[in-house]
Amino acid sequence: MCGIVGYIGDKKASSILIDGLNKLEYRGYDSAGIALCHQDQVEVCKQVGKLNNLEELVDEKKPQGRMGIGHTRWATHGKPSTPNSHPHTGCEDEFVVVHNGIIENYLSLKEELLSQGHNFSSETDTEALAHLLEENYEGDLEKTVRRVTAKLEGSYAFVVMTVNEPDKLIAVRKDSPLIIGIGDGEYFVASDIPAILSHTDEVYILDDGEMGVVTKDGVDLSTIDGEPINKDIFTVDWDPGMAEKAGYDHFMIKEIHEQPESLRRAISGRLSIDNQQVILEELDLSPEELKGYERIYIVACGTAYHSGLVAKYLIEDLVKISVEVDIASEFRYRDPLVSEDTLVIVVSQSGETADTLAAVREAQDKGARVLAISNVVGSTIPREADDVIYIHAGPEIAVASTKAYINMLMVFYLLSIHLAQIKESISQEKATDLIASLKNIPNQVAQIIKDSEKVFEEFASEYAKHENAFFIGRGLDYAVALEGALKLKEISYLHAESYPAGELKHGTLALIEDNVPVVALATQKSVLDKTLSNIQEVQARGASVTGVVLNKKEEVVDALDHVIEIPETEEVLTSILTVVPLQLLAYYVAVEKGCDVDQPRNLAKSVTVE
Ligand code: F6R
Question: Residues with Cβ within 6 A of ligand 1?
């Protein structure tokens, strides 16, 4: 959840580290710090709170050095405070560490170190590592790191440096991502690509149990046990501009506006020119193998889980096979009924979510084949899964996911049509119609943003006055309503509930009173009349209803206080359009309430702890 950055080269390290931390703030942001090695001294600057607090301190202290490490923290062990923030040192400022993950046996390590006379100044697990290095150092940092790593239990990615060898950084990875960026006479270490993307697009991606000794002259890669490794350089195809705000007030609104483009990337090369076929070249599963699956399990967390709920409707509708959708933190602990005949699809934007990763391992242990749908190339989940389809959304920086969700949906649409064609559960004519409509989706999303942004800007203030909001819909609309409610909750702190429209009367209707805002999605023709009745039910109790509708049918419009119309498309494809107004609503309500849109309280982009 935290972010790591490191630099060694000829440039001033402090500005490179601060710039990297700025790009990583989405990972966690209750405190931040940097440490620079200069001549035979280490200077540590750290501050609780937002990164600008650290920037002010760095401006004041002006730490020198051309090698250093930095960290943004999302507290796990020890409350957010300056002493608990990273980098951590031992008793003297000789060994410095930044660390992501959890050192599970830190209490016993700490006890031993205390008995050896070490004094601790924080409540963190990480500090034990700095003291261990200090205790075990015999003149060779690399050997010391290997020896010390052998004593650690848990999951970690860390970078260390020492004044005793002021020409190297050592990076170690186990169960938490870490990459080494290759520049010209300079090298970078980072937990995520955006931190170093403005400097280089060439990286080594460390695997579990590997370490890199990084100097100005190169990188030595080996296993923690000392076996040398040869690794291919990975070229990142993200444009550095994608990780900048580019004139927008927030990353979230920039990413909402990027959706037409990111959808085009998701379909690029995957739909035949004649609209006959979906082409998923990266899928290693043969048509025969795919045909053999009678059950699909989709496992994910949060927004990614919501994309799975949409996929259940699609796959069951188009492919006619049964789909179960599970939250990863539940799946991993409940002995799920998966086996060789189940295709398990895991969905994760970051590719690093701890619970989803555990679900991959659980499913594989049970003999299932795991297909990952992910955004971050080279991240852990796609690397461990048997197959992967990338969503190609580009870097997503705002904590609230928008373009990744919509691209997940697009990939599920592609996969569902592909499976349906293999299983011959839809006619060629139907497939061709769907493919033609899919190609039109990016333009339609652009149209919705253009048409509805102003509307939301204007009536967001009505929502911002309330403490509760409700989202209702039936079928596919309900799956999208869940995502709409989550978006509103996480960035505007407004309590939002999502219900299947027909379920309200079984209890929740009691909460509807004068002016309570209700968002009603009404795009599914087969249940439109039923949804309309439900809209009337809430209106009769005083609710103010915003409808997201497929076309402005008079009887629908009359019933609504605000109407957002989405363009005509195949009914099964509407989810990719209806979510856009809901994202805009959440964004403008959060702005109206003065919330920290990109970095909502208590949340982090990449949840690498359970
Ligand atoms: C909400 C959001 C989260 C993530 C969830 C899973 O806007 O972004 O709910 O969807 O933490 O993250 P990934 O997809 O990285 O596994």
Answer: 301-304, 348-350, 353, 356, 400-401, 490, 606-607
